[in-house]
Amino acid sequence: MKKILILAFAALGLAGQTTGDGPQFSPDGQLTLPKDYRQWVFLSSGLGMTYGPAASGDPAHPLFDNVFVNPSAYRAFIETGHWPDKTMFILEIRSATGQGSIINAGHYQDAVQAIEAEVKDEARFPQTFAYFGFGGKDSATALPADSSCNSCHGQNAAVENTFVQFYPTLLEVAKAKGTLNAAFLRKSIAEPVAK
Amino acid sequence: MKKILILAFAALGLAGQTTGDGPQFSPDGQLTLPKDYRQWVFLSSGLGMTYGPAASGDPAHPLFDNVFVNPSAYRAFIETGHWPDKTMFILEIRSATGQGSIINAGHYQDAVQAIEAEVKDEARFPQTFAYFGFGGKDSATALPADSSCNSCHGQNAAVENTFVQFYPTLLEVAKAKGTLNAAFLRKSIAEPVAK
Questions:
Q1: I need a labelling partner for A192 at 20 to 30 A (CA). Which of A78, A98, B87, B126 fits?
Q2: ipTM passes above 0.85
């Protein structure tokens, strides 16, 4: 029985880790870059999307962007169509290469060029959502509440301050749950291609 | 104590699920499409890569490919640079769109066009690795051992039969662990751009 209990509590510890995947801040308010974000849930990627804060506008050198979200927030979104408090997104920007191995056309991903984050934290940020650029470091300070990130996300995002219009699996969830922003829906009717 | 034990065994059940993420076959040998593969570990994506079995060769309509692997196999690869038995990859192919929302250049992902899989199963397949196309269904039969998938992966892949050369985070692991295929290394020396 003692051995079973030890095993059981070890298992409880493992299960507990899966819910402790939200943003981590240092005492002075710096957001820590999660070491394991590549094991978070992938939402989508794009190539050469000029909306990306660090995306290159040079069509000859387009950049890939990969978006990841912490797993517990993903599961909550699937259930509700809303992001829970302590949701965290990582935007990983990589260079694109079209040469190598068997490739004779197209692009695949190469080195990291930038890592950015978006965090939902109602107690920490009066504007609820905050944006971060890591600049090659493993921690980052929130951009000011009136940054261009805040205003663009606030005006154009499909669900809350997040660009769910670019995450095809989640867009379907938001449609089904009725959680698309009113401003996004109005624009979609005016410009149907915007979905 | 009874309540603790129930909780503990529930937790054991949860923990058990995370290691039971390998390929599932029906009694007649059909591979099941995992419902949760979008929560597996994302390896990389590309756009318009003509090596992809279902990729379009039409440069006006390039396709995205997303590659996912079951989490337990990913963790084993990070430790060893090798894929364990019961590794399973999903190749998800999506259409690309450049119109919509705030996008004025570049491409982002849209509807699923095809889903394919690669499975490592030493007991089930004499050739160890097998390839599957789901064709819109939720199960698939392995392609013959002499399929073009088998021969191309066997001749060109960087690690075992897998295109780790296109997964930048794993390529670093394979280099560090010394698990790159000899044929891949020879080609890389002859054509340095192939890495």
A1: A78
A2: yes
